[in-house]
Amino acid sequence: METSAPRPGLREMKKRRTRDELLRAAVGLFTSQGYERTTVDEIADAVGVSQRTFFRYFAGKEEAALALEGITVARFVEGVRARPAHEAPMEALRQAVLEGWSSLSEAVESIVPVGLYLRMYRVIESTPVLLAAHLRRSAETEEAIARVLAEREGLDVDADPRPRLAVAVFGAVMRVTERQWATSGDFSPEGMRALTSRHLDQVGPALLGGWRAGP
User: How many beta carbons lie within 10 A of that of residue 213, not counting itself?
Assistant: First the structure.
């Protein structure tokens, strides 16, 4: 007999609501007036709480700026872990990321509209301190995914380089895709999904084929 997960208590629900409100205010301010010009006091004031309350939920502005990305990354890692065992590693990565873009609204819309989340990507790309933190987190995520792939394939990640090599290639494709998408005219989840799919299709020819256009 299946039992449902216990519902969070009122205290936990209130804490989650406060955190979501702070995150919503932070993203709104970051995207409207810029990361550097936004202060913690402004974020706290927008929610009607103290600066001390803000720091109960976030270590600082940087953590708040990257929090939504953290939610989607965690879902991606779990998505890779849940892919069918018969899928080859690169196919598992491909399907997990494409399905992630398809279900983006489910992951973030309880906190902010998807459009606001997507605009936050441009803030990250254009703010050096956030971009550096994003790249650092990406490296940590790649290591986590490499370990998931090794576990799926029954490999020792420290003895067999293939999981890390596959994830390194995949991560490079995603960085190229993010940069192109952040400057494109089609700033939508569908646009990012299509661009991701197209770039992943080009991995084999890019690595193994010739690039010269003519003789």
Answer: 5
**pLDDT tens digits along 64-112:** 999 998 888 888 899 999 999 898 898 899 889 888 877 777 778 888 8
- Torsion angle, alpha carbons of 180, 182, 185, 186, to 10: 90
Give the tokens for residue 117: 């989340």
What is the pTM (predicted TM-score) of this model?
0.79
Tokens at 134, concatenated: 């994003």
Over residues 124-150, the pLDDT tens digits come to 989 999 999 999 999 999 999 999 999
Could you tell me if 150 and 143 are in contact, meaning their C-beta atoms sit under 8 angstroms apart? no
Burial state string for 123-143 with b = 16 or more CB within 10 A and e = fewer than 16: bbbebeebeebbeeebeebbe
Distance separating alpha carbons of residues 175 and 136, to the nearest angstrom: 13
Give the chain as a 3 state SS string.
CCCCCCCCCHHHHHHHHHHHHHHHHHHHHHHHHCCCCCCHHHHHHHHCCCHHHHHHHCCCHHHHHCHHHHHHHHHHHHHHHCCCCCCCHHHHHHHHHHHHHHCHHHHHCCCCCHHHHHHHHHHHHHCHHHHHHHHHHHHHHHHHHHHHHHHHHCCCCCCCCHHHHHHHHHHHHHHHHHHHHHCCCCCCHHHHHHHHHHHHHCHHHHHHCCCCCCC
